[in-house]
Amino acid sequence: MLDNLGVPLLSGYYFAPFPEYYILNRNMKDxxxxxxxxxxxxxxxxxxxxxxxxxxxxxxxxxxxKDVDEVACEALIRSGIKAIINADExxxxxxxxxxxxxxxxxxxxxxxxxxxxxxxxxxxxxxxEIRGGVILHRGKTIGVGEVLGKEIYKRKLExxxxxxxxxxxxxxxxxxxxxxxxxxxxxxxxxxxxxKTQIAGKPVVVVVRxxxxxxxxxxxxxxxxxEHPVLMGVDGGADALVELGxxxxxxxxxxxxxxxxxxxxxxxxIVHAYPGGRxxxxxxxxxxxxxxxxxxxxxxxxDIALLLxxxxxxxxxxxxxxxxxxxxxxxxxxxxxxxxxxxxxxxxPKLVDAxxxxxxxxxxxxxxxxxxxxxxxxxxFTIVLVxxxxxxxxxxxxxxxxxxxxxxx
Length: 409
Description:
Elements: E1 9-10, E2 13-14, H1 19-26, E3 37-45, H2 48-51, E4 60-63, H3 70-78, E5 83-86, H4 99-105, E6 109-112, H5 118-121, E7 127-131, E8 134-137, E9 140-144, E10 146-147, H6 150-181, H7 184-187, E11 203-207, H8 213-219, H9 221-227, E12 230-234, H10 236-243, E13 250-253, H11 260-263, E14 268-273, H12 282-287, E15 293-296, H13 301-311, E16 316-320, H14 326-331, H15 338-347, E17 351-353, H16 357-360, H17 367-387, H18 390-405
Parallel strand pairs: 3-4, 4-5, 5-6, 11-12, 11-16, 12-13, 13-14, 14-15, 16-17
Antiparallel strand pairs: 1-2, 3-7, 6-10, 7-8, 8-9
Helix pairs in contact: 3-4, 6-15, 13-15
C-alpha cells in the first residue's frame, strides 16, 4: 500500500521512499524515534532567530538552517517545541557543531534534509503530523527527511573533526584577505559618530546574544550592581539585558533581532550601516518614531560596539557573549573574522572577555562556614547575656511557664 508520494505504509507507519534512507535509519540504535507520531502546529521561519519569537509549547518549528548554532538551539529548546523540520541539516559535518546535541538531549524530534519545498508546501499555522522522517498534512505526505538521532550526530561530529584542519586553513586565509579591506578599523580612518551617552572614564558592558551570554551576565551581576557601567546591547543583546532586569543605555546593530518593545525603552539607538552608507535597519527604527545615530563601518555589529566604546574613552570594556573564535564564526555562517581580529587587536588593553566566567568558580555553601557564622554571632550575644544577669531571669520565666502548663501553684 502506497501513499501519494510512493511511501510504503507498513503497520500504520510511513517510511521514506529511498531504500538507503530506510536502511540507514533501521540500523540506528535509537530506531524507536522513527515510529513516534508527533502532531502539532507548524511555525515556519527562514530566520531561526526571528522564528523563536513566535514559537510556543507544542509547536513544530519548520526552518531552513544549515549547522544550527548553539544559541539558536537553546532558544528553540526554551520555546517548548515538540519537533523541528529542517529543510537543510542541523549538522553538516563541516565543523564541530555542538548545538544539535542539546536538541537531542532535550528530547526534541529533529527531521533533517527535508528539502526547501517544504517551506512552500506548508503554511504557517497548518496542523501537521510527523511519523519518523515523514511529514504529513491532511493525511498526505508533503516531505520526507532524515531523523537526526544520536548515531547520525556522532558520525557527523567525527567527520567534522577530520575536516577541521581544512576548515581552519580556509578560515585563516579568508581572515587575512578581508583584513586588508577592513584595516581602517585600526588605522583611524573610520569616522566615529557623535553620541549623547557619556562613556569617557566609565566602564562599559557590551552584551551580545552569543554562547552562555545569560549565565555570564548573571555571573557579573555584582560588578554591574557596584560599578554602574554603561550597558550596551548589540541587537538581541539589548533584549538579553532587559530579560535579566537591566535597561540598556545604548542599542547598536543591524536592528534585525532586537524587539520593538526594547527599542521603545528610551536607549540611544545606533544603526550599523555598510561602508557605503546603506543601513537595512534604518527604516524600521524610524517607523517606530526613533531618530537613530548611523555608524557606517565594515565588520560585525559587535565589533563596532567594542570600537565605539574604546574610541569614546571607556575606562574598561567587558564583553559578554561575543564571538571570538573560528567555531563561533562558522556557526554564524561567516568564513573569516578579519574585523574581530583587527578590533580586538586595537581595544585589547581595555578589553575583558566575560566568556565562560560563570564556569570559572561556583561557590558552595559549606556547613562549616554556616556553623562558623552562627557561632560568631552567638558569642557576643552570650557574653552580654551573662554579664547582665539574663540567665537567672530566663530560668525563672521558664520555671513559671512549666508551673502554669502543669497547673502547679
